[in-house]
Amino acid sequence: MQEVTDRLIDAFEAEGSADLIHEFAFPLPIYAICDLLGVPREDQDDFRDWAGMMIRHGGGPRGGVARSVKKMRNYLAELIHKKRENPGDDLISRLIEASDHGEHLTENEAAAMAFILLFAGFETTVNLIGNGMYALLRNPGQRERLQESLAAGETGLLETGVEELLRYDGPVEMATWRFATQPLTLGGQDIAAGDPVLVVLAAADRDPARFSGPDTLDLGRKDNQHLGYGHGIHYCLGAPLARLEGQTALATLLRRLPDLRLAVEPDDLRWRGGLIMRGLRTLPVEFTASP
Ligand code: HEM
């Protein structure tokens, strides 16, 4: 993770400016998951292009998206085929080997699993890094506190800080659909069996009955059981990976580009549309260039 993070910063640190979404937050989780799955480095930029097409046109023109999904699935199917012949030390090889009471996954099932991991872990992590860095840039006192703690070689504030950033402005605003299994009354609202229920995680995470000063960013917040990764049996499978990505990305940006600042007025930033995800389209920043 550290190597992927450093490689991305190396590419723009001499410029003195960057769009942190496109040049950093967007490729980082793709390269990280590709490494984990066992996608060779020379093919990872194809993944970056396909994923870019899917995220840019999500909800827009469908042709390009469908083509990119197909290319990605075909690529994964072929890779699984190759790994079956020639296993490596990677997740795809483990998925092929995995068995449940002697029954192995079919190649189709393994490809679908790899695809889900890529998808579930991609835009979410882009937004953790983007929203998180934006919140730090808007809260200079908290950002300074974190920079001082990192300079002292501590990791405690980084760990609680990433959890707080997930609570304060998390990447996933709403959980996926739920359906009531029996009639119930919730918050004065009658819900019949079978009714759909949309849980707004972002509202729960700013609930004044649960969090003191919910609209304040406090990187050292204790008792911070937020719902950024969901709850219960569908709790995020990738939470430990996302934590590692978020911590590595934010700490490395603050360490290597200590005077990082917004290059535009906050009002000029554009956020993605849609109800489920919350994230910036671009995050233009400036900093002192390193040769
Ligand atoms: C900051 C980054 C992430 C956030 C905020 C996030 C958030 C969530 C949330 C809220 C859910 C529950 C949805 C629901 O209950 O309807 C979820 C489920 C899931 N996440 Fe994540 N996620 C992140 C990163 C990842 C990563 C990196 C991976 C995999 C590599 C991943 C894989 C999954 C999977 C497979 C599920 C479904 C689990 C199930 O239904 O049993 N996520 N995530």
TrEMBL record:
Gene3D superfamilies: Cytochrome P450. InterPro entries: Cyt_P450, Cyt_P450_B, Cyt_P450_sf. It comes from the Bacteria. SUPFAM superfamilies: Cytochrome P450. Belongs to the cytochrome P450 family. This is Cytochrome P450. It comes from Streptomyces violascens.
